[in-house]
Amino acid sequence: MSNIPQELRFTKSHEWIRREEDDTLTIGITDHAQALLGDLVFVDIPEVGEECAVGDDVAVVESVKAASDVYAPITGEIAAVNEKLADTPELLNQDPYGDGWIFKIKPADENDYDGLMDADAYQEIIAEDES
Amino acid sequence: MPFIPHTEAEVRAMLATIGVESIEDLFDEIPADLRSSGLKQVPDGLSEMDISRLMHTRADQDSRTLCFAGAGAYEHHIPAAVWEITTRGEFYSAYTPYQAEASQGTLQLLYEYQTMMTRLTGMDVSNASLYDGASALAEAVLMAVRANRKSRTKRILMPRTVHPAYRKVAHTIVHNQGIVLEELDYDPQGGHIDPASLPTDPGDATALVIPQPNFFGVLEDVHALTDWAHQHNMLVIAVVNPVSLAILTPPGEWGERGADIVCGDGQPLGVPLASGGPYFGFMCCRQDYVRQMPGRIIGRTTDLEGKSGFTLTLQAREQHIRRSKATSNICTNQGLLVTAATIHMALLGSRGLERVAAASHANTVALSDKLAALDGVHKVFARPGFHEAVFRFDLPIEDILRALSAQSIVGGVMLMDDYPELGNCLLVRATETKTVADLETYVSSLQRISERLQAKASPVQPKMM
Q1: Which domain holds residue B447?
Q2: Which residues in B have their CB inside 8 Å of a CB on A?
């Protein structure tokens, strides 16, 4: 059973989203996703200031057996990226919801956050995967 | 198609099993507007007997000539041992080394090839080869667009001194991706891209391509060009002759930071001219960009027992993993030619390669001096070159070349089609394969031909009794 923090939002493509106090959104990939990928060897992070539309492939996570796109869950601008992933991509495996965050978005429309899936809905999706 | 083992009955049985009417139906996923309408310019096939005869005739045309033509493919001596070893069954029939445990021999050789190329070019990483120099340049352009995150425009500055065939191939491959190849014109005196003529504000451009030597054989001012490009946030793509690197400054040491991507054709390293191919392309880059580099990359690692071994690495860039997001659609390399090139470089060593380069340069200088001394022949560009030079002739080049070929001499390559402004010019090269006697033969034949052609043009003809 993978870890699904209740206070976060999620996407079908296994990204998690946390709303920060300054209304930026921190995004990473879920415990379920990192377990499926295996040991991560490289994370291709976006540039700060890049504009992205919802659904754009914004980052790439590469493991020993696969390379997967990470999608922007919301339209906005990249506000920050986790530089530590360049040297220690394994942070994503070890602490996917904490130190393994990938990038932060400043949303174009703050209300878009409310449309994102909650923890229970995500739980159902991966229950199908895990069964 | 005589080599497909299935009979018509077997094909029908297979189609019936999967419930499909015809083979054509298996392709119905491809939209009608994307389908090819057939290869109209390709003539009908020939029988094995006819093709064999045609190829023998063609081969005869190319053999036993004294060749002074270069333009991207160069005649160098290949020690007999090179192809003796390359054609051994173990190397000759080795295929794709996806299964590392069964391919250590091939992988080790490719790793050594990569090592040699990085040493020659002064770069950090090399791939295991591409198809040829022209497509290698196209791949380098695509790579620069991916790697240069600071640039938004996909403008590539492409000097006219880059090989015309390379520029055409690059255009074919990249233009549908919205990449624009902007031409930079050359200085008519020097035959190079004059750094002083470059704009002080070129705007947002992704990369500058720098050939060395360039298509005319002339040496570019690589340090000034590299620094200019880097000052304006462009990546530098070097297109180089691998033999010349034995005596010229390698691209890794150009300007302050060195070139970012290096590519070219590896034919001069142990691959015969073979009427135009196959050759192989090489590509090297800085460590920062390795994940954007296409093609196979061999790495060295240790196995579970701690023993050293070789394997394909960084495969997540390749299309068998990333599919449409891969760095390239290439899924192979020119393994056999790379084998020959690696053995060639190993046999020659760095000093041997230096001597080949120096002898080629010296012979071209000697030939240039002799040619420039002839009436009606003029050296076009003032700047120093590697092993090729451009000459303008007063008499029509086609007539001269035809007359030379009647003497089994290939005089050089005409430039008029790609450089109409140069007019009646020839690109001539001499490598270490030419003796003093060879140069004399060329020059004296040229002299006799010129006299004969001029006599023909004379208005007073002797009456024949």
Answers
A1: 349-457
A2: 149, 291, 316, 321-322, 325
Q: Of B343, B361, B387, which marks where a domain is finished?
A: B343
How many Å apart are CA B124 and CA B117, to the nearest integer?
10
Bond into B278 cis (ω within 30):
yes
Chain-chain contact of A66 with B321 (C-beta, under 8 angstroms) = yes
B356 and B335 assigned to the same domain: no
The amino acid that residue B387 corresponds to is: H
Residue B321 with chain A: CB contacts under 8 Å:
66-67
B39-79 pLDDT, tens digit each? 888 888 899 999 999 999 988 877 778 999 999 999 999 99
* Residues ≥6 apart with Cβ < 8 Å to B124: B118, B284, B285, B286, B287, B290
CB B106 within 8 A of CB B311: no
How many CA atoms are closer than 13 Å to the CA of B375, on its beta-carbon side? 7
pLDDT at res. B314: 82
**Fold of domain A10-109:** OB fold (Dihydrolipoamide Acetyltransferase, E2P) (2.40.50)
CB contacts, 8 Å: A44 with chain B: 291
Task: Report the pLDDT value the prediction gives residue B463, as an integer from 0 to 100.
Answer: 63
Identify whether residues B170 and B143 lie together within a single domain: yes
The answer to whether residues B101 and B206 belong to one domain is yes
Nearest alpha carbon to residue B387 among B239, B247, B186, B190: B247
Give the domain CATH number at B293: 3.40.640.10
Tally of structural domains, chain B: 2
